[in-house]
Each structure stands twice: as C-alpha cells, then as structure tokens.
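INFO  loader      accepted 1 record
INFO  loader      residues=293
INFO  predictor   begin
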Amino acid sequence: MIQFNAMLKISLVLLLLISLGQPVLKKVFSLPKSIKESSGIEVTSKSKLVWTLQDSGNPAEIYGIDVNGKIAQTIQITNAKNNDWEDLTSDDLGNLYIGDFGNNENDRKNLAIYKIDAASLQNKQATVSSKINFHYPEQTEFPPKKSQMLFDVEAFFFYKDNFYLFTKNRSSKFTGETTLYQVPNKAGNHAAKRIGKFTTCDGFSHCAVTAADISPDGKTVALLSSSFVWLFTNYKTVNFLGGKAQQIDLEDFSQKEGLCFSGNNKLLISDEKKKSNGGNLYEIDLSKLKAKP
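INFO  predictor   done
INFO  writer      dumping tokens
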C-alpha cells in the first residue's frame, strides 16, 4: 500500500508538471509558403475556411485556407487596391470586410473598409459591394508630430452594424495606449467616433495592438499583440475597453497580426513568416485558461 501511494503521488506530480509545461499557443498548421505576411484572419458563418489576407506590397487578394493548411480559394478583388490591408471581419450573414487602414506614417487620407458579399466568396474574382471611408476628427496634420502618431490601425471587428477599430500607437513616446473608435457600416465618408482607451504595456514590439475580434455571443473582446492577448468581459456598453480586463502571456514572441474567434471559447492566431519563426496558424482554448485559478 505504501509503495502504491508513493507511485500515485509521483504520477500526480508528473501530470501536474506536464500540465504546467503545456504552451498557451497550440500550433494548428503552417500557413502556405505563398502567404508570408498574414495580416488578418477571419472565420465566417457561411464558410468552413479560415480567410486571410496580406498587407501593403501584396496583391489585392483574399485567401481561404482549409483544415489542412492548404489554399482552397483565392479571390482577386477587382475594384480595390491593396494600399495597406490589415485585418478582416465579418457580419452575421457571412459578408466579409477588409480593413484598408494601415497607416504607419500617419499620413493617409484614404482610409477605407471594403465589403465583399458572402455569395462572392465562391468565385475567383469579386468586387467591393460597399466602400466605407472614414477619418479621425482628432487628426489635423498629415503626418502629425512624432509624439502624436496615434492614427495607425491594424485591428477591428464588426458588431451590431458598426465597426470597432483599435489604434496601433506609433508615437515617439510609446505608452501602450490604444484608442477605440466606432465607424458605422454605411457607404460614405464618416468621422470615426472615439469611444474609449486602454493601456496595454510599455514596450512597442511586445505591446502594440495588431488584431482584434469579438466572440459570436458578443460577451468577450480580444486584442492581440506580438506577445500577449487581452480579453475584455463584463462591459455594459460598446466601450468594451471599460470591461474587466485579463492579460494572457502567449509565452512566445513573433510578428502576430491575425486573430479571430472560432466559437465562443477558441481563438485562432496567425503570424508572419520570418527567417527563424512564424508563418503558422495557432489556437488558444480559452475554456482551459478560464479554469485556471
């Protein structure tokens, strides 16, 4: 009996060590070699594929990736230029939206969101069915002073007929602050409405916001950086950043730029391919993280 109890204790300790040693990120597959700069990902309600795109300098195309990590669909967008495509989102009908709002130098005046109809995702070519232009009322100089370079965005999602955008702070005095803006889902040129702010952490390479999404049930918002995910819950208004915040250390550093929910408790994350790392799709099981004390 003593020997059995000792063996049981050893087994429990080993199980605990194995559990503690499991990484937060689980690699699902390597992205196709042709997609070296995945800057956004999305799962829609009408497709089984994971959709992705690449940012400035790449073709005006979106790609549907299957469960084996292969490109199952390539769609050329015929009436829009890839100025700096940074993120994807979708609505309840499965329509896809491209965020053409990358603004590294804070000098763009042609910020836009493009709607791609769900029915077009079956074709090799698609046209933008609606174009939403917007600007930031707080920006008066193009570019502003280096200390005020606060108008780059790489992260957004759709929620109840509005888009919610999260800025990537490029100011010379980086504080980790991201600003939340609201833009209506209507064709035209809109003044983005400032909703709230949140401070991530104080190192640009680890803390600048690169992607965002909201869970299908609308109860959880996630922000991504190269090293962390921030979850927001228990918000009472569309100032999601005013809710309860939880920081998740991904225990991994790479150029992570794509994030989306796949169900209410799973996050998918993609990173760009560099010489030594990246170029993968990962997942995080949030139900396991929430279970931790």
